[in-house]
């Protein structure tokens, strides 16, 4: 099963840089796809349960606070682009400039 998560952190107060986090997300086999709608927030797709995925990020954040939430796509709301909602709900990769996802 593929799960959807929202990862949120304060990029100003974190001990990790945005580049370090993005590198971990891109290189991790645990993350199947990702989208960052705004600074400090990632929507992630993974087959991992919350615990193991959270442990992966805990090692990187090294004590800095972060929140990893298992999100139910049909229970989410907001004003993101419809293409992104399609990806969140179906897993179909959007073809947007500046958006990087794994296939």
Report on the architecture of this protein.
With 103 residues, the chain is an alpha+beta fold. Helix content is 30%, strand content 24%. The chain has three helices and four strands; from the N terminus they run βαββαβα. Strands 2-3-1-4 form a four-stranded antiparallel sheet, covered by helices on one side. A hairpin with a 2-residue loop joins strand 2 and strand 3. The chain is globular and about 35 Å long. The chain starts with a strand and ends in a 13-residue tail after the last helix.
Layout of helices and strands, plus pairs?
Layout: E1 3-9, H1 18-27, E2 33-38, E3 41-46, H2 50-61, E4 66-71, H3 82-90
Antiparallel strand pairs: 1-3, 1-4, 2-3
């Amino acid at each position: 099963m593929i799960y959807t998560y929202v990862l949120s952190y304060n990029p100003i107060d974190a001990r990790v840089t945005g580049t370090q986090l993005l590198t971990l997300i891109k290189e991790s086999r645990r993350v199947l796809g990702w989208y960052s709608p705004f600074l400090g927030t990632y929507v992630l797709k993974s087959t991992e349960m919350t615990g193991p995925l959270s442990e992966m990020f805990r090692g990187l954040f090294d004590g800095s606070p972060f929140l990893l939430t298992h999100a139910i796509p049909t229970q989410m709301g907001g004003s993101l682009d419809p293409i992104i909602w399609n990806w969140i709900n179906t897993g179909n990769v959007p073809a947007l400039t500046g958006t990087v996802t794994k296939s």
